[in-house]
């Protein structure tokens, strides 16, 4: 645990990532039994080097309202399973057809398309098994668990992530205007990021005004995060980000830099981060991780 | 409502199907907004002529323990969404590569593979959004809703349906022994059928011994149902069942008739149905729908 004075984001992220990784190791099944290959494929992508941003946001959301982050680990990990499933399905040949993810061969490249499809299905389903485990979430009321489960399902489904994904796929190779790009970003990535930090705050017992502030923070950084992804695809280093730079342009994807220009995109991103931090003004030092994560979005190299 | 004396299964199934269809129409989103095509694809398969067996089992499970089936409609419909998602993904070219389902072109034949994949993802996710809607399930405690949600997630995921699916895919074209075929059947189809009737009984407030009896019933009819699918694939009429007869043999799928012979498969199926009905011996006339559904499995032509 770090003190208020010496907050170091790098140490914070690394400590929380280690906690999430250990929990995922415990929650995910061991590769054994008749479904051995399925479980191996599920584990492969979960342990392929994710930053654990969504779980960390969930934990930080919970700690910001003054509760113990450890209490929400099952939900935090469930969010990572949903994120991972979306990457596996996204990478499939019928979708983005990507061979490389975080510097490693994508799931279907290693296990084949059928197994990758089922590994995604398995992870999405297991996310809901995990987040409804009242035995693991014993310090949280079933009412709050149910509320959060519904909220995450909304964020992951046609109203959120899957809705953003269909519009993204349909937009490839077409000239899109600003509102469409914004729709894709806020839905495909933003919705799950927002519900990550909001779910932590709800499970931690945050009151209405706290939830409102944290949800506003989540919306801002969710969009800022996706804009930084677009910028990294232009300015980043392939080795550092673990996938091919320029992939968006190659696939003729419409991104923030395409519709707003690179300079304007950076301005929008900066403004979103400032507004996100401002949303948290009513909170004390316990919101420091969330404030620093917001700044990190602009600074990150991968 | 039918009286105890004049129970007519055909009328019962048709009445319940109409109730489920109306509820699905209300719960599913209208095709509008940017994700229009996704919603259209989701609705296409949901309204492509399913028998609504799983929702009806959920309602019947609830009514068997003496509660009102209408109270569990959101969960009943969620089960149908999970079933439908599994069919859409199952039919994809990387899986079974089927062009026809219930006499209609499969989802990817109409909407393309990317949209079909996402329609499946959207339905699976929406199922969890629906079954956690405490506003719709207002007569049921959040504890029971959470318990049922977890149980259904287990039945649909790697421990159940997806686990059965991976073994099924891996077995194609290989000579399989009886235990493997039984594993596929009990997991790929059986698990969700069992949890359909069990979830109704749990939500309806059934006690431990009632749940045990109804779960046993579910296991038996789940397996019997899949065996009847295998038998229909040999003896059925393509027009009646809405897909090509002999598809299993063509794909070199190992089925019950393959490992046990057609005659022995029918014997096993009959025994399972008798045992299922016997599991319900402690219940009164309210279990009559479940008893009759069990017998229907042997008699059905599609």
Describe the protein's architecture and organization:
Two copies of one chain form a homodimer. By secondary structure, chain A is mainly alpha-helical. Chain A has one domain: Farnesyl Diphosphate Synthase, CATH 1.10.600.10. Chain A has 15 helices and two strands. In chain A, a hairpin with a 2-residue loop joins strand 1 and strand 2 (104-105). In chain A, helix 1 (9-27) packs across helix 4 and helix 9 (178-203) packs across helix 10 (208-235). Chain A is globular, with a radius of gyration of 18 Å. The model of chain A has no long low-confidence stretch (mean pLDDT 92).
Name its key features.
302 residues, homodimer, two-stranded antiparallel ribbon, Farnesyl Diphosphate Synthase
Describe the secondary structure blueprint for this structure:
The structure is a homodimer of 302-residue chains.
Chain A (H helix, E strand, L loop, with lengths): L8 H19 L8 H11 L6 H12 L8 H19 L8 E2 L2 E2 L1 H5 L1 H19 L10 H15 L4 H11 L6 H26 L4 H28 L2 H4 L5 H4 L5 H5 L1 H18 L8 H12 L3
Antiparallel strand pairs in A: 1-2
What string, H for helix and E for strand, traces the elements of chain A in order? Answer: HHHHEEHHHHHHHHHHH
Number of domains of chain A: 1
CATH class of chain A: Mainly Alpha
The two chains with the largest interface, and their residue counts, are: A-B, 50 and 50 residues
Strand content of chain A: under 5%
Shape of chain A: globular
Identify the quaternary structure here.
homodimer
Helix content estimate of chain A: 55-70%
Number of helices of chain A: 15
Overall radius of gyration of chain A: 18 Å
Q: Helix- and strand-based class of chain A?
A: mainly alpha
Query: Alpha-carbon distance between the termini of chain A?
Result: 26 Å
Query: And the CATH topology of chain A?
Result: Farnesyl Diphosphate Synthase
Number of strands of chain A: 2
- Strands across the major sheet of chain A, in which order? 1-2
The CATH homologous superfamily of chain A: Farnesyl Diphosphate Synthase
- What low-confidence regions of chain A span 5 or more consecutive residues with pLDDT below 50? none
